[in-house]
Amino acid sequence: MSTDGWKNFGRYGADRDPGNIHGKIALGRALEDALERLIIDGGIKSPATSRRGLMARLRYLTETKGGPRALADAGVTVTPATIKAWRSGKQRPRPATLEAIDTAYWNLRAANVLANSGAFKQHLNRGGRGTKVEIHPINQNVVDEPRRRENLRVRTFQVRYVWDDAVDALTAGDADKLEEIWDDIIADMDSDWGAYTYVSHIGLGA
Predict the structure, then answer these.
(1) Sheet holding 21-22, edge to edge
(2) Strand, helix or coil at 200?
(3) Cα(104)–Cα(95) distance, rounded to whole angstroms?
(4) How far apart are CA 174 and CA 144, in angstroms?
(5) How far apart are CA 89 and CA 118, in angstroms?
(6) pTM of the entire structure?
(7) What is the pLDDT of residues 8-60, one digit of tens each?
């Protein structure tokens, strides 16, 4: 398929597979996945059912701004005296309450990470080394046979300098900016760059 063909995506059947999507959409999803990993990997590892895990969550929820609201939103509406008893070990939350405390913790951690986009940008920039991007081409099986590009393969390379703008675009929900960034990324590829305007998946090594 020629580069012009990609400007008319679907003319030769590529849109028959809903998994074939524009790179800007795949990039946004990849950024969301990387953000979720950052939230989880940097969070408390011990489960809420363990003493260590419960104490760590209660400490975060009582000593971090927004903690009481996160607890209330998760359905935990006990008195400060009850929380103090939990922290001292004199009482233990019921299983349903433990689950709600865990929910409150992760919701608050996610909100705080999202509010500090600088940390996410730093995570992706890696001190100027950038992040590895793995690009999976579209599923060619649905394309009309004479127009298939069977030589397309998974491409992997290091991407630098775009991540601040990418995070800002993700946060703002700016699809046009994500499209511009995706065009910049694939422009560094060889003459096949147009064949990666649409993809089936993008993975980030972050």
Answers:
(1) 21-22, 198-204, 131-137, 155-159
(2) strand
(3) 14
(4) 33
(5) 37
(6) 0.81
(7) 444 444 455 556 788 999 999 999 999 999 999 999 999 999 999 999 999 99
